């Protein structure tokens, strides 16, 4: 069945691979980028099945305009993909507050802006699927990427709450958690700073690894796009989807370690209740 998609950050990376896959599959696309001239080849190849839009996701009004463009051009919006984002490498100490805010504005508030703009339309349609790009760094704190992980952990929490609130309205939510993919994310899109010598064994090691890793990441962007197209076709898609063997292995190890730590400290955790609290009491999630 033909779908109408809106993807943020279509100029390069996983957003570009997904945009190409969506159009090749016969769907319609509102393709967004800060500079829509970078989308000219998509329009040339796919014609009026592509609506190119300039979008800075940190601009609330621009986000609303992009959603309206989907309605004006194609009459509806079936799939929203919040993909736009970036993450630099630097220690927390050496990252300015301005840089912290800039990364969180794009990676978290950008997602919130576009999602909130789309919810009323999908609520009225009683249908839709919101696909949020998080990261393996949204499940595991990534050394050297504190602003990025801060934002992605926020995306995880925001999207989990969103999924529970909009499910009765017919709207689905999926959080995508990629590992390393052979895109420009770790190349010219990223500022990498090893920082002061005190962080050489941590941030410095990550910076050196990132430079060496770029171009040999295990993830294939074309296969990632195919996986996302698949989950977008499902009546019951997953809430979370890890992408890439590195992401799967890292999160498995992290989840086991977290569970073991919770069990180790369980008695101390339970000891903080009032004596009158019964074991059957639970938080409403």
What does this structure look like?
With 285 residues, the protein is of the alpha/beta class. The chain has one domain (4-268): Rossmann fold. It is 47% helix and 13% strand. The chain has helices at 13-24, 40-46, 60-74, 97-125, 146-166, 200-213, 221-232, 245-264, 266-270; strands spanning 4-7, 28-33, 50-54, 79-82, 128-133, 171-178, 240-243. Strands 3-2-1-4-5-6-7 form a 7-stranded parallel sheet, with helices on both faces. α4 (97-125) links the parallel β4 and β5. It is globular, with a radius of gyration of 20 Å. The two termini are 34 Å apart. The relative contact order is 0.12. The mean pLDDT is 93.
Task: Describe the structure in brief.
The chain has helices at 13-24, 40-46, 60-74, 97-125, 146-166, 200-213, 221-232, 245-264, 266-270; strands spanning 4-7, 28-33, 50-54, 79-82, 128-133, 171-178, 240-243.
Any idea what the radius of gyration is?
A: 20 Å
In terms of quaternary structure, what is this?
single chain
Mean pLDDT: 93
CATH architectural label = 3-Layer(aba) Sandwich
Strand content: 5-15%
SS elements, strand count: 7
CATH superfamily: NAD(P)-binding Rossmann-like Domain
- Largest β-sheet summary: 7 strands, parallel
Roughly what percent helix? 40-55%
Spatial gap, N to C terminus: 34 Å
Please give the domain count: 1
Number of helices: 9
Give the topology string: H per helix, E per strand. Answer: EHEHEHEHEHEHHEHH
Cross-sheet strand order for the largest sheet: 3-2-1-4-5-6-7
CATH C-level: Alpha Beta
């Amino acid at each position: 069945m033909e779908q109408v998609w809106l993807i943020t950050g279509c100029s390069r990376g996983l957003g570009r691979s997904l945009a190409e896959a969506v159009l090749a599959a016969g769907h319609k696309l509102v393709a967004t980028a800060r500079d829509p001239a970078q989308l000219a080849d998509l329009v040339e190849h796919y014609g009026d099945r592509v609506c190119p839009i300039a979008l800075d996701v940190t601009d609330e009004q621009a986000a609303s305009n992009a959603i309206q463009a989907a309605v004006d051009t194609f009459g509806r919006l079936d799939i929203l993909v919040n993909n736009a984002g970036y993450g630099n490498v630097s220690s927390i100490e050496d990252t300015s507050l301005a840089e912290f805010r800039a990364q969180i504005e794009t990676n978290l508030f950008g997602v919130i802006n576009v999602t909130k703009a789309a919810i009323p339309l999908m609520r009225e349609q009683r249908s839709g699927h919101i696909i949020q790009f998080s990261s393996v760094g949204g499940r595991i704190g990534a050394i050297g990427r504190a602003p990025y992980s801060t934002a992605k952990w926020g995306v995880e929490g925001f999207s989990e709450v969103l999924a529970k609130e909009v499910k009765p309205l017919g709207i689905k939510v999926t959080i995508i958690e990629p590992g390393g993919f052979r895109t420009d994310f770790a190349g010219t899109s990223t500022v990498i700073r090893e920082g002061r010598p005190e962080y050489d064994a941590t941030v410095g090691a990550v910076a050196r690894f990132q430079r060496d890793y770029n171009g040999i990441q295990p993830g294939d962007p074309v296969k990632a796009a195919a996986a996302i197209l698949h989950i977008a076709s499902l009546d019951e898609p997953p809430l979370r989807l890890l992408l890439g063997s590195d992401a799967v292995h890292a999160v498995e190890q992290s989840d086991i370690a977290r569970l073991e730590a919770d069990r180790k400290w369980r008695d101390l955790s339970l000891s903080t209740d009032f004596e009158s609290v019964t074991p059957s009491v639970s938080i409403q999630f």
